[in-house]
Design goal:
three-stranded antiparallel β-sheet, single chain, about 50% helix, flat, 22 helices, alpha+beta
């Protein structure tokens, strides 16, 4: 019976036999890339529709810059859609399965860790580029890994990734290949150092492979080798998922055409360390649907009509003078005042022909309108113009208008939320693997006016105790005008009465400093109660607090802790904190009563007659 190695080019099994997997990996990537020529052609077409420089695909720049007077309606629609989706960047949050207060507190810290990881990785900068990738090419991808104790979220261009189309028939391939260009010096610095468990072979062999790696020779070589000042080499990364939780066939290989640089076991069974964003789930296969390709045919028709109209205006766009043959010499018309034109016979006639029939203009405009309409984008949104009736509308009315427009893109918004949940799980996977390897992962999470250091070991939880989801950052509106209106409605309904709570909700940038001072009495009580609930040392209350506000706030924390099932010793500490505030209130009331008694005694003493003075006569009753 034939073995597996005799019937298939399984590079991950070649490595298991003790052979260098680089030749098998390069052969697999080359074969799959040749099979994906049609797919690459679709990406080139999508980039051309958007107006992208095609040299990165090894294609000429023809069609990107043109002398035709035309407008890229497809690019306008894509940019408008990108702006709509980029208005919100939902971040994953954890939801505990039941659990007590400590589990929920740990989950809150995990939320801060995840949001800090997105912030520290600079995700806000690559997020718009990811949206552009998915709209133009149909699929966007990010890779998550740990480098030097920090979380890295890296965008991977989809045209650098490869999957076997037959293997990805159901959208879940078992192998993912990343073919990318790297500077030779960077590769040498990364993989040419001392030996460790993740590197393959000896340092001398790796350095030899790096120095001997040739420059690219594929169809995009003309672009990558266009400058003698660059030294780019092709690097191949191949990942094979483990076949099961206990399987050992999972493998990640990083190789050059001249040798393997790294080979490590890949224990994950469900992901390659990458998350993929697709606006619409494909009917079959791995790649999503491209919006640029949908708009390609009408954009071509729009460009063709623009070219015809331009030529027609060049030929027929001026005034013509019709004269009878032989009655007037061919003389140019000048612009002098009182010019005399002599003619014989019939008077010359000025003829202004219409360059193009009005229906042609209407047809061209209809194409542009339909390109936007069929994608669910209004012409007003594409032009960043509000309807006439909403130009003086309230923030709430504008939110309703936005919600009506976004209803068409609900599936896209849900795909974006799930994409960020997937990234959140990748961060958890990477941090857990780094922790098992003894590497410490720490991030700086933005807080109120400062950054907070959070270590993964302080927030790690059992996966069976929580899940991740994406929820709106706030139940209030995102725009300042709408948020202010909604908070005022809550105040009118007497849901919030205290001005400090209102200041907490109105998180407006221009009043943050004043708000922070105004709410400091609440903030210090909240911080103290949090220290008590975590079992950490806390400061005693003092007379400088607004004790009535402090007591009311601490009382709410106390009742909330009892509802949440906080351990009894922590509840007792909260009760003790309340007793200390009560004691201070009683002390200050007693001091105030003593002060009032002394003041009254002083007033009575001042009103009494001096010693030896004659008593004042009593006034008649009727006075």
């Amino acid at each position: 019976m034939a073995s597996v190695l005799e019937t298939t080019d399984a590079w991950w099994l070649v490595h298991g036999q003790g052979e260098d997997p680089a030749p098998s990996v390069v052969a697999a990537v080359t074969s799959i890339r040749n099979e994906a020529a049609t797919r690459r052609g679709m990406w080139v077409r999508a980039a051309e529709v958007y107006g992208q420089d095609l040299r990165m695909f090894g294609m000429p720049v023809k069609g990107v810059w043109d002398e035709r007077v035309s407008f890229n309606v497809a690019a306008n629609a894509i940019d408008t859609m990108q702006a709509k989706l980029a208005r919100q960047m939902p971040l994953p949050s954890s939801l505990t399965v039941g659990g007590d207060f400590l589990q929920r507190y740990r989950a809150q810290r995990l939320d801060r860790f995840l949001s800090g990881a997105f912030y520290a990785a600079g995700y806000a900068k690559i997020y718009p580029q990811l949206l552009l990738d998915v709209l133009v090419f149909g699929t966007a991808c990010v890779k998550v890994y740990i480098a030097d104790g920090s979380v890295v979220i890296e965008r991977l261009p989809i045209f650098d990734l490869l999957v076997s189309e037959p293997e990805a028939r159901y959208g879940t391939p078992r192998c993912l290949y990343h073919r990318c260009y790297m500077d030779r010096s960077v590769v040498l610095e990364t993989f040419g150092g001392d030996d460790d468990e993740s590197l393959y072979g000896s340092a001398d062999d790796r350095r030899k492979a790096i120095f001997s790696a040739p420059k690219p020779a594929d169809d995009d070589a003309s672009y990558m080798n266009s400058s003698r000042y660059s030294d780019q080499i092709l690097v191949y990364e191949a990942t094979h998922l483990a076949s099961g939780p206990k399987a050992t066939d999972g493998l990640r290989v990083i190789a050059l055409s001249t040798g393997t640089l790294s080979a490590v076991q890949w224990k994950r069974t469900g992901n390659f360390g990458t998350a993929f964003l697709r606006m619409n789930t494909p009917l079959a296969g791995f790649y999503g649907k491209s919006m640029a390709l949908d708009l390609g045919a009408p954009q071509d028709e729009y460009d063709k009509l623009s070219a015809k109209i331009q030529v027609a205006h060049d030929l027929m766009g001026g005034s013509h003078i019709m004269v009878q043959a032989g009655t007037l010499g061919k003389t140019k018309i000048d612009n002098d005042v009182g010019t005399i034109i002599e003619y014989n016979g019939q008077k010359p006639d000025v003829f202004n022909p219409q360059p193009v029939h009005p229906d042609t203009y209407a047809y061209k405009d209809m194409i542009a309108q339909n390109m936007l309409r069929y994608q669910g984008i209004s012409e007003l949104a594409a032009q960043s113009v509000l309807p006439a009736g909403l130009r003086q509308a309230s923030g709430r009315a504008l939110n309703v208008y936005d919600d009506m427009e976004d209803a068409r893109f609900r599936v896209a918004h849900e795909a974006v939320r799930q994409f960020h949940v997937d990234i959140g799980w990748l961060i958890v996977d990477a941090c857990e693997e780094a922790s098992e390897a003894g590497e410490q992962v720490e991030i700086l999470a933005p807080g109120q006016g400062a950054l907070e250091r959070i270590n993964w070991s302080d927030v790690q939880m059992d996966r069976r105790e929580y899940t991740l989801r994406c929820e709106p950052i706030s139940s209030l509106s995102q725009s300042k005008a709408a948020k202010f209106q909604e908070v005022m409605e809550l105040v009118d309904r007497k849901i919030f009465m205290d001005r400090r709570e209102v200041a907490h909700l109105l998180d407006l940038r221009d009043i943050i400093a004043t708000r922070d001072i105004e709410t400091s009495d609440i903030d210090i009580v909240d911080k103290t109660c949090a220290l008590i609930l975590r079992g950490e040392p806390y400061p005693d209350p003092d007379k400088r607090l607004l004790l009535d506000v402090a007591y009311d706030r601490a009382r709410r924390h106390y009742n909330k802790a009892r509802v949440d099932g906080v351990p009894e010793e922590r509840v007792a500490e909260l009760n003790e904190y309340l007793n200390k505030i009560e004691a201070l209130i009683a002390q200050m009331q007693a001091e105030q009563a003593d002060a009032q008694a002394q003041q009254m005694a002083q007033q009575q003493q001042a009103a009494a007659p001096p010693p030896g003075a004659a008593p004042q006569p009593e006034e008649p009753p009727n006075v």
